[in-house]
Amino acid sequence: MSNSTSPALFANTILVSRDAGQAPTLQTIGVMGQARKKRPHNKSRRGCIACKRRRVKCDERVPCSSCVKRNISCLPPFHQHVVAPSLSIPSAHFQMDMDPQISLLHLELFHHWDKETRSTLTFPQIWPVVMQRAFNEDFIMSAILCVAAMHLTTLCPQSTKYSHAR
Fold first, then answer.
1. Facing residues of 29 across strands?
2. Which of 75, 84, 96 is nearest to 129 (CA)?
3. Could you read off the pLDDT of 47-59 as tens digits, one per residue?
4. Per-domain residue ranges for the chain?
5. Which of 7, 8, 11, 85 could make an SS bond with 30 (beta carbons 3.0 to 4.6 A apart)?
6. How far is C-alpha 130 from the geometric centre of its chain's CA atoms?
7. CA dihedral of residues 88, 92, 98, 99 (deg, nearest 10)
């Protein structure tokens, strides 16, 4: 195992082909005992989906220069865990009701959302974050319950129980 405090040493030996009729030779590139020089670079952590798919560095602009050059749509990555910066800031417009009226219908709708509706929606990686936020933001919980009620109304059109929940 190499010591992490010592500089990396390198020498690469490659097979170089010659003209027709001559045997290939081994050529060493680099010098043994010489410290390896690495070029400085900046990592791209929040690159667009197209750049990640192509495994190239993204300049993280919207749209990025790579997507503009290729004339393709530049989509932000899915893995960002920020739903919206404004959701984490307490606001006078969206105060949490400290005495909510929770019924068995609400619990049934939330259960249906979690077990059935959520899996039918796109962007599965965002829903766990949205569900966590729903316990702190009334409007998110209301939206979840409404979507679950609409889903149940579609699945059970004969029942009027869920159509009133919309």
1. 12
2. 84
3. 888 888 888 888 8
4. 85-155
5. 11
6. 14
7. -140
